[in-house]
User: Fold Phosphoserine aminotransferase from Flavobacterium taihuense.
Amino acid sequence: MKKHNYSAGPCILPQEVFEKSAQAILNFNDSGLSLLEISHRSKDFVTVMEEARALVLELLDLTGKGYQALFLGGGASLEFLMVPYNLMKENGKAAYLDTGTWASAAIKEAKIFGDTTVVASSKEQNYNHIPKGYTIPADADYFHCTSNNTIFGTQMKEFPSTNIPVVCDMSSDIFSRKLDFSKFDIIYAGAQKNMGPAGTTLVVIKEEVLGKTGRTIPSMLDYAKHIKADSMYNTPPVFPVYASLLTLQWLKNLGGIEAIEKINDAKAALLYTEIDRNPLFRGTAAVEDRSNMNATFLLNDESHAAKFDEMWKEAGISGLPGHRSVGGYRASMYNALPLESVQVLVDVMKELEKSI
Ligand code: PLP
Assistant:
């Protein structure tokens, strides 16, 4: 039986992506060759890369607006370093919003490069909310934020307006909700949540922000070089890119981001309503900042943990324990998780209440 997979990433992908990508490993496009044994310069794979890059821009409504999409290696963590390399001027400075573990990891890398201002942080409250009312210095080279905090279950519902370039780590909520993506100059996201298997990172760049640092950038870290090479400066991660294309096609066929947002809203409403109603549980994130992707919650009485754990495992749920820095539970409800899976979890929570 297929599990109800609440894993935070790598995580559930649409079933058809698993099936079609397995087929491509065996016999890609009926060529008699595996996707894994053909040249990345072959027409078949170049077409995959071109389609994937174009579909990203189409789904984000960025086609023809001066943006380029890249599929790079190295994980979202490499972007923590590539962003300052490509945007921070010699003797310049950057502004960061500290909303969680990943935001603070990005800040750590930026500090290696230069003056890095943290405009606000919720660290003292164990990142249980998104800070508001901060000022972004107008003379910074860019502002960096994290749209969804995978570990702490908070999500930015609004983004500040500023005249400096805005960079956003959207690793855990890309393609999940409608935003005006043209407000961002660089968006990056590791594939392994809403897009595909681990091994590639999507970077969407407004080209005009590049080339202004005065730095010499090592080739593999230079966004401009990757753009010039059509995202094939070196051998790209062919399988993760292909599986990402399949997920993007699945999303387009479903009706795009607008359609998935409605489903994601319904899933989050179903679960948060139960967390708030059920006297056995409580959420950990400030209500107004709750993430639609990762819902974090605790049992009010830890002595019920063994029973609850047994019950959800029995119901075919997997991947529910929270990150060690928060404890409790984290239900990751990425795009491919069906509403029915959330209903199964809610039913288990109700059953636990009845049994006590
Ligand atoms: N940023 C966010 C918001 C994440 O959730 C993660 C991983 O979960 C990362 C960055 C790091 O991604 P990677 O493991 O691809 O470097």
Q: What stands out?
A: Residues 9, 75-77, 102, 146, 150, 169, 171-172, 190 surround pyridoxal-5'-phosphate (CB under 6 Å).
